[in-house]
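Annotators were shown the component list below and the corresponding predicted structure, then asked to write short factual statements about the assembly.
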Amino acid sequence: MAQKIAHVDDDPDIRDAVSRILRMNGYDVDTYLTMEDFINSLQDAGNLPDLAILDVMVESMDAGLITYKQIHERYPTMQAIFLTSLGDMIRPYFEDGSYKWVCVVEKPVEPESLLSIIRERLEDTKATMNSSQKT
Amino acid sequence: MATFDFSWNKANDQNVSPATISSGPKLNDEILITNIRWFIIFRWGVIAALIAFEILATLSSETLIKFGIIDLKDWPISIILALSIANFAYAHALKHRELSLFHNPTINLWVQIVVDLVCLSVVVHFVGSTATPAPFFYVLHIVLACIFFSTRESLLVTFLVCAMYTFVLLFENPIFIQLPQSGVIDAHPSIESRQSNRVLLWMFVLNTLFFIIWYVVSRLSMVVREHEMRLLDAYRQINQTQVEKDQYAVLMTHQLKSPLDAIRSKINLIKAGYCGESSQETKDVLMKIDKRAKNMAGLILDLLRLERLKQTCIDCADTATLKPVDICRTLQKSIDKLKPVTKAKNVDIHVSIENFAYHGIPDQLEILLENIISNAITYSFDGGSVEVTSCIDQANDTASLTITDHGIGIEGKDLPNIFNEYFYSPRAVTHNQASSGVGLSIVKKAAENNNLQIKVNSEPGQGTSFTVIFQHVQLLSDAIK
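Structure shown to annotators:
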């Protein structure tokens, strides 16, 4: 079964680029225009993604960060990646140490590096789940 | 070969910190402690004057009597001893005891004022309460109380001064207390009566003067404190504006860079074959478009970086905090980030350094090293090399990190200007069209914020070396060879 990835971005060209790359590499992709749409979609347990790709500045300066905090609390195993135009420049907006939980990728979308980060993150999830099942 | 030293001292033009501005109805503890220390030094001066006075009295007591100073006896020695013991006690309390409800700068100052007033009253009594200017020294205490205490507390000091002076007068003139009992109206006033009138006049005039001085100085002090409060408010507003300015800069950067990122994402899709096959000619054109867009995106981010560095205020909330930084780790991180550029230029980076820690702003030190190394790579010839070496001077606790390239170099006439914003050297632009002219301004700001000195050594056509000089470093055991 294909792994599920949610992508939230208000830029249609970025949404198109990311979904095209991921679908052509066998992932199941859901795209959302706003963080609210994404949060609402999580109410359906069958709709939980394995990984979320979040833009930071959607609707407001830190909508992505707030959403990330919410999903990290509710679904700690769900992996997340920030895909932002500002790259490392958003680091000052993270609270102490929270940047360690998440990966920040600077736009533009580069197919090879994006895929490699996603694979690495999803393997981390598998490893975490396997170790929790053993214990 | 041209060499140029660059050093920037942030401390000279650092903004005023709110800690140095007083708050509330009186001065904050930090300023009070500074002034207590000043008082203690001042009191040593007074003690020295009293010693000189005592020596003068021993050598020529008659001269003092001529000036109306009645009887010296042993009071100067007693006052010298009392003030000296008190001074040691204040200094000890300030240095060795922790602050508490009953031991704080305000209590310390109050004790000093009361002890000083008692000593001054003794001096006034022996030197002459109505015949010499000694009582005018009470004014000093009122003025200082107005400056360092709230209006109410300074009024209390003024009452205390009046009470002390009145007590001295009454103590010296017991007849004055007995006056109401005599109750005889005499057309030719006796010597006692004239004396009591004189004392009454001094008491009235000086006590009134004390209150007038309290009123004038406390009003002035209130005006000064009001201005200080306004300054503090202005400072808070500036800080708030800085935060808003940063948010605005971030927003603008995002809005400017987003369309470029969308364009470049599409280009990347085509280049990677996600939109079907494209001709080599199309790929070449797309590569050129991508290169220009990438340069523009880099410039936009550099401008935001520079703006943030300019706003840095050491130890102010929200901007930067100094921490011990592991230089080896920071350097490695910078080199890792630059791997794509290194690969594209086919440049080798050779690192051979001894590790040390420097107390600086971690992010900014990383930006500084990243920019210098990035410059070294960019201005190297294809297939060249960049060396990173260190030199630690353990005797002086200093260290230097040198980044050397063997690239195009900088002409002597350009060298003094390389850290200026938007400075372009025609040779540099020919070699690298992507130059934004901001990279070394970022280095300059980061060096300034971290109190670093940079030495640049260059020979056109031979290469350039940037030496970053760190003061007060701590040697660490690991190294990169």
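Statements collected:
1. The first strand of chain B starts at residue 2 and ends at 7.
2. Residues 54 and 76 of chain B are 6 Å apart (CA to CA).
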